[in-house]
Design a protein that fits this description.
The chain has 83 residues and is mainly α. It has one domain: Orthogonal Bundle (434 Repressor (Amino-terminal Domain)), CATH 1.10.260. The chain has 5 helices and no strands. The longest helix has 23 residues. About 10% of the residues have low confidence.
Length: 83
């Protein structure tokens, strides 16, 4: 079953909706990773090599500051792959 993209339903262009969905997925993956390993955002930020405020922005899904390269940059450090 294909995954639906709520951002398409909201009227965003296809390419923009795909990036927004990817950012949501990244934020969710990081939240789950932190929870599974019982890490604070600060500890997770240290592992990923980013600042605690930056990981907080990602986890809160701060759209404007996140970049599409974020997931591909941090995925290997989390032990996962980004499509």
């Amino acid at each position: 079953m294909a995954r639906q993209n709520v951002f398409l339903d909201l009227g965003f262009p296809k390419h923009e909706a795909a990036v927004m969905l990817m950012r949501c997925d990244l934020a969710q993956e990081i939240r789950q990773w932190l929870k599974k390993r019982h890490l604070s955002q600060a500890a997770g930020a240290d592992i990923l090599g980013i600042s605690a405020p930056r990981i907080n922005e990602i986890v809160r899904t701060a759209w404007r500051r996140s970049r599409s390269t974020t997931s591909s940059a941090y995925a290997p450090k989390r032990g996962s792959r980004c499509p």
